């Protein structure tokens, strides 16, 4: 078990497997022996995983015995045991103890190369004697620490070793021994002798299994980064290596090494894979070669017809191949290679002529409508039949588009475009002209998430397109404007869309112009958002949207109509108080779904749920969000931009409604270890709950998010805004103000989201007691955002939460100025209730009641303060909002609002009232009368009277003597 320095890199993504092994070791160390069978494909990292466990044992002072089987058949019995004992006896860390244990067990000592017998010769030894000696040896070594006995590569184990494994697994009970056996699951064909042993052992109560799975894509990338000494890799390198290695660490490492030297397939790896094929009979090898040409999957009938073998011969060959785990059944009549690289190795080993003939045979069988276009294109191209390959590639691209596979569609279209000049009459074969086929490739490119590449292609198409074809010109420009918008190039996007609109007359209406109008309206909205100084007449944008809707309806362009409806709703929402924007969004959603434009449908669905949320309809918003999220997953869109946004919105709705257990279940899917802004946005939403509950996970999440601060406006807004709140709960208002400043620097002055950040900053100023101009500036910012749209117009609709945050800002500003006004806090409570007492934003209602109770105490309204305080405590306890509960407990103690009275005192303090004991506690802490008054919300004169009464009742002459008595009686620890 070599430790070559790559163990830690291979352990990426193996924490669960290592945890399972460590748990078995812990059980063994505690006196319950354990056996673990570790399986996985060749090269998946079994040895490195077990090496990590061995290091754990050595660090604990235990004994490690590691032996390895070899591909030598039955000729070397007990080879792994011999190997383990020989190595351990020569290990300077544990050799002395092992040699001492062996000295009393000559039956084992003779197995060693320098023993009385020759290496591995156990023919004269009684098996039970040897088994007993082995059991005794590991038991003796376990008295001073845990023992790890590893038998590696059991797929090559001899019969005796398999028997030893079975024996130890059955009889080890109280020994401090962890027995680990590793084997290649891909080598265990149906008749392999280890298969029944594994099945038998896994029925035993102390035997468990650990399957080492291949890497996920991100784990392969991390592994390769570790191999390259932490240097960042181009994303395409990691993706390509993962795709070819299928997550196998050994293959990934070989491929990565080959990539750096320019090799396509490492010779060593190919030899490794082909050695397994060469064990087969002639017919079986022939079938494997046919299957390699077919691709990853092949059917029974195709194999028979292309191989030229009869049915009986093919059946026998396939049985042999499957028993050796080279092909595995897939469905009722098909087979796939056990590993893709095995197919690559076999394919690369074919002679050129043989390869071409086999491809031609497959193409002939797949011709017409009998096979998939993609397969036909692949085989025809490999057989050099370009006309068939061209037509099939076009058909394959369209098929891929229909099933929602844009990356594959792009590949097929690009192949067809590359063959355009090499085939006769390509327009007839393709059923379209070259420009429109290229436009189809552009669409596939954009839908694959490669907007920049789509823009580059569209610009080249505009240079070569026929200027007389205006409808085509509009189509190209509308697409270009759309993708420019996706790249946040809003000025060029708007100008391009405007150019498209102007190319065709309004009458007669055309679907191309309707789409261009819809895109133009969308780009104008984006331009206003990104450029606050950009102003147009109020009539222009809604008039353009209405024109787009009319043109779309006249020409049946339902997706253009839906897009324009969403834009119109967003524009009017901020400007019209009575508009039911959610109805417009619902109408747009339904139109887009019927038109099959899911991008527009998701945009509409998001705003439909969001608009209901903004209007305080939390139940309706939750229902709409749930329906939309279900739609995203049903259609494979759960991780699209709007899919992720909808999941975050759904979580936020339940958080707002005080359904925190439900919200926590949803947030469990929000990853912590994120490295990209899109993932970090989703992760940041979990902070709402974690910060409010004082969860330690917030600190870890912040550590992952912090490096990405500043890269994304929404991420910065959420994570740094909540970092400010966390700092305030931790008593660090200065740090909170740093976060607030950073967020506001990244936002536009009239952005309504800034109201919450301004209110948080005012909370910090109030806690600091800084009656400064900065507090006035924050309030002014909040008021401006509440009353003004991004383009400088009057804001008619803010949203209920926005209004509530404005009320909070007003109340915090008064507190910062030294005038903690109960009426302002009452308004804040009411605002957060969203017109439903006991409802609305449940947590923020409770936080506002905390401040209201505090303000009421300061104004002498103690009974009303107690009622507000109790209400806030009830909610904080139900939600598990620990920071708020702690703040409420502090207020309850200082202001005597808690329902429970302090425990009755005894001894010298028994004569004091509860209030006098509170005062004495503060005296013992070194507080003066003014500080006592501020803490207990009483006047300094009243504090002085309490202190005089305490001195008289305790019969002491000074505050110092009173404090000493308080310490002696344990008042400060009660």
TrEMBL record:
Gene3D superfamilies registered for this protein in UniProt: P-loop containing nucleotide triphosphate hydrolases, Winged helix-like DNA-binding domain superfamily/Winged helix DNA-binding domain
Keyword ATP-binding part of the UniProt annotation: yes
Alphabetized UniProt keyword annotations: ATP-binding, Nucleotide-binding
CDD domains xref list: LuxR_C_like
Residues of the HTH luxR-type domain: 905-970
PANTHER family: TESTICULAR SOLUBLE ADENYLYL CYCLASE (PTHR16305), TRANSCRIPTIONAL ACTIVATOR DOMAIN (PTHR16305:SF35)
Name assigned to this protein: Helix-turn-helix transcriptional regulator
Source organism per UniProt: Actinomadura miaoliensis
């Amino acid at each position: 078990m070599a430790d070559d320095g790559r163990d830690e890199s291979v352990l990426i993504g193996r924490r669960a497997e290592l945890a399972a092994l460590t748990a078995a070791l812990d059980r063994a160390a505690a006196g319950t022996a354990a056996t673990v069978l570790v399986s996985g494909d060749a090269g998946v990292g079994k040895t490195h995983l077990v090496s990590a466990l061995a290091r754990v044992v050595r660090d604990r002072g235990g004994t490690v015995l590691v032996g390895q089987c070899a591909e030598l058949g039955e000729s070397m019995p007990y080879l792994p045991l011999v190997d383990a004992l020989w190595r351990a006896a020569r290990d300077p860390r544990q050799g002395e103890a092992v040699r001492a244990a062996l000295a009393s067990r000559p039956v084992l000592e003779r197995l060693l190369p320098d023993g009385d017998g020759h290496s591995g010769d156990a023919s004269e030894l009684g098996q039970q004697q040897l088994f007993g000696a082995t059991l005794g040896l590991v038991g003796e070594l376990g008295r001073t620490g845990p023992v790890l006995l590893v038998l590696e590569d059991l797929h090559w184990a001899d019969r005796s070793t398999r028997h030893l494994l079975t024996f130890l697994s059955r009889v080890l009970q109280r020994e401090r021994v962890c027995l680990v056996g590793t084997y290649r699951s891909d080598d265990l064909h149906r008749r392999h002798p280890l298969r029944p042993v594994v099945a038998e052992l896994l029925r035993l109560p102390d035997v468990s299994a650990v399957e080492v799975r291949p890497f996920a894509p991100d784990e392969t990338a991390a592994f390769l980064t570790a191999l390259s000494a932490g240097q960042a890799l181009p994303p395409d390198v990691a993706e390509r290596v993962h795709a070819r290695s299928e997550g196998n660490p050994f293959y990934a490492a070989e491929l990565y090494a080959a990539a750096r030297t320019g090799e396509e397939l490492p010779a060593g790896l190919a030899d490794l894979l082909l050695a397994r094929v060469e064990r087969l009979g002639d017919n079986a090898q022939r079938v494997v070669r046919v299957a390699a040409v077919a691709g990853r999957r092949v059917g029974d009938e195709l194999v028979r017809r292309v191989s030229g073998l009869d049915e009986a011969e093919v059946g026998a060959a396939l049985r042999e191949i499957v028993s050796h785990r080279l092909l595995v059944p897939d469905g009722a009549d098909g087979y796939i290679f056990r590993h893709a690289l095995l197919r690559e190795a076999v394919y690369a080993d074919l002679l050129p002529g043989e390869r071409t003939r086999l491809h031609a045979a497959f193409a002939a069988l797949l011709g017409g409508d009998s096979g998939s276009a993609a397969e036909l294109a692949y085989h025809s191209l490999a057989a050099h039949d370009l006309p068939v390959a061209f037509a099939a590639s076009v058909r394959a691209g369209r098929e891929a588009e229909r099933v929602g596979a844009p990356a594959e569609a792009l590949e097929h279209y690009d192949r067809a475009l590359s063959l355009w000049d090499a085939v006769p009459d390509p327009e007839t074969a393709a059923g379209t002209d070259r420009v429109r086929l290229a436009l189809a490739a552009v669409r596939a490119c954009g839908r694959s998430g490669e907007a920049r590449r789509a823009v580059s292609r569209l610009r080249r198409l505009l240079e070569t397109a026929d200027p007389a074809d205006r409808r085509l010109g509009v189509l190209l420009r509308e697409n270009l404007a759309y993708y420019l918008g996706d790249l946040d190039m809003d000025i060029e996007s708007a100008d391009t869309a405007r150019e498209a609109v102007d190319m065709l007359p309004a009458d007669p209406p055309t679907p191309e112009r309707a789409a261009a109008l819809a895109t133009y309206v969308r780009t104008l909205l984006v331009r206003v958002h990104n450029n606050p100084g950009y102003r147009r007449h109020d009539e222009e944008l809604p008039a353009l949207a209405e024109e787009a809707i009319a043109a779309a309806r006249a020409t049946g362009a339902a997706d253009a109509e839906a897009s324009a409806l969403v834009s119109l709703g967003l524009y009017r929402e901020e400007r019209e108080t009575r508009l039911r924007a959610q109805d417009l969004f619902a109408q747009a959603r339904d139109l887009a779904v019927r038109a099959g434009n899911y991008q527009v449908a998701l945009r509409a669905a998001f705003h439909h749920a969001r608009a209901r949320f903004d209007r305080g309809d939390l139940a309706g918003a939750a229902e709409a969000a749930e329906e939309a999220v279900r739609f995203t997953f049903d259609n494979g869109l759960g991780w699209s931009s709007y899919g992720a946004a909808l999941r975050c919105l759904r979580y936020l709705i339940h958080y707002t409604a005080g359904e925190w257990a439900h919200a926590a279940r949803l947030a469990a899917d929000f990853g912590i270890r994120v490295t990209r802004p899109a993932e970090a946005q989703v992760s940041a939403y979990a902070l709402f709950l974690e910060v409010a509950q004082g969860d330690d996970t917030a600190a870890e999440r912040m550590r992952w998010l912090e490096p990405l601060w500043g890269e994304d406006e929404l991420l910065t807004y959420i994570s740094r805004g909540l970092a400010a709140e966390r700092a305030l709960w931790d008593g660090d208002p200065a740090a909170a103000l740093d976060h607030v400043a950073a967020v506001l620097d990244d936002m536009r002055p009239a952005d309504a989201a800034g109201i919450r950040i301004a209110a948080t900053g005012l909370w910090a100023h109030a806690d600091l007691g800084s009656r400064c101009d900065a507090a006035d500036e924050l309030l002014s910012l909040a008021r401006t955002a509440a009353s003004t749209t991004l383009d400088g117009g009057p804001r008619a609709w803010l949203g209920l939460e926005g209004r509530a945050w404005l009320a909070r800002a007003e109340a915090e500003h008064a507190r910062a100025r030294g005038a903690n006004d109960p009426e302002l806090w009452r308004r804040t409570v009411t605002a957060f209730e969203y017109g439903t007492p006991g409802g609305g934003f449940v947590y923020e209602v409770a936080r506002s009641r905390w401040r209201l109770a505090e303000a009421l105490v300061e104004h002498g309204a103690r009974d009303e303060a107690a009622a507000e305080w109790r209400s806030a405590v009830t909610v904080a306890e139900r939600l598990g909002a620990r920071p708020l509960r702690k703040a409420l407990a502090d207020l309850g103690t200082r202001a005597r609002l808690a329902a429970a009275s302090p425990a009755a005192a005894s001894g010298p303090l028994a004569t004091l009232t509860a209030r006098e004991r509170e005062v004495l506690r503060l005296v013992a802490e070194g507080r003066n009368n003014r500080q006592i008054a501020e803490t207990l919300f009483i006047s300094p004169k009243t504090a002085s009277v309490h202190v005089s009464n305490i001195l008289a009742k305790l019969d002491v002459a000074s505050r110092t003597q009173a404090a000493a008595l308080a310490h002696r009686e344990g008042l400060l620890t009660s």
